[in-house]
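Hi U.,

Before I forget, here's the chain from the pilot set. I'm dumping it here mostly so it's searchable later in email.
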Amino acid sequence: MTAVPIHRQPPFAQNTPNCGLKTDTTPVFALKELVASLYREQNRIQNLLSSLGFALRSFNNLNQFLELTPLMTARVTDADAGALILYKANGQVSLEQLHCQNHQIELEIQEVLTRVIRQANSNASVTRTLAVSLDEQIRHGVGTKIRLYNTPILIKNMERGRLYVFSANPQYIWTQTRRKLLQLVADQTAVAIANNELTVELRSKERQDRELEIASEIQLRLLPRKYPNIHGVKLAAHCQTANRVGGDYYDFIPTNYDQLLQDQDSKGQTSAHCVPWSIVIGDVMGKGVPAGLIMTMTRGMLRAEVLNRNSPGQILQHLNRVMYADLENSHRFVTLFYSEYDPKTCVLSFSNAAHNPPLRWQFATQEIERLDTEGMLIGLDPTSEYGDGRVQLTPGDIVLYYTDGLTDAVNLKGERFDEDNLIAAFQSACHKCDSPQTILNYLFEAVEQFIGIENNNSDDMTLIVMQVKLLE
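Structure:
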């Protein structure tokens, strides 16, 4: 601003109010006008930035906000045009918005930006040197008639695009204030993009959570809701999953549906005195939804295989052949213990596909033995063969089926619960508890006390307790 000389009045004029001389007050008015102009400009910029902030808070659609960005950019910097260029996740560059009051200048800038971006997308994906290359090409394209300034849009310290301002005014000066205002708009644009990405991620997570809830609900419905009425036997079972969807599996399957229907009375209740039942427990290697899907497939195929009325070893052999291709493609395996209990003879026939052998507590001797046969994982080898075993149960005997989630449970010291602790807890439960359900509760409490209340188990845990009733 050019200094204006101040003409002082003669001393006598100061004390002569009506002397008839004109007082030169031009500098005062000029200063007031300058202050007022700066105040109006400050208010204008504040209103523009407030509008941008309101849009950031209010707009649910990111595109609505991005439409305002070049407009606000041009106005707060007093430029002729503003442009927003973003780098996409697929490695491409996109001109999101362009605003210009002068139609001729807009056409020139539009042509340059379109040509440069098309060339960038055809040559390479987004790299660190891309922004510099774009700047150089755009500057070269618009020539010396239009001045160009820009600032990066940073999200988590990564450049995701750039804001450009263009001015055809030869007197236009890129001041520190304009640079800060451009950066402020760029920062708000970055916040808007980041918020949108978080919203999309949150919605995706909510959708996945809902899908997991549905999958968990379906899986729980596939597990037996109630225990079958097997003559002379009491049962208890529970599956405690580490995640919403687990890979553990247990089931009770009648070996003869025709006979089961014949034994139903008029009210639909089943006496099941003569029907042998299959008692199955298994574990899919892995966790979450993939393991749950394999478990569901195993359940369906096994139930169909049981209808063929083969021996336990043959059932596992056929199941392995049928499931081998699908399990190999999924890179997963299944451990499975299959048994059939005949209430007429109290004989438990079984076959094991590399599952944890169930424990039998003999009431007469108070001793524990493992029930096991030779057999490999389901899905490991299509030619695997599985042995057959059988044991004569007597009144008072208790059989414990379990998955490795119990024996692999780890406490805060890194120690495993292991089979020895399970056997000791099972032995104690058989002496202290009077029903399969209380035995099951006792064992789960023993594992929880071992690992600690604040320590969550990382694997599914499943127990089946079968007790042959004592003779009355």
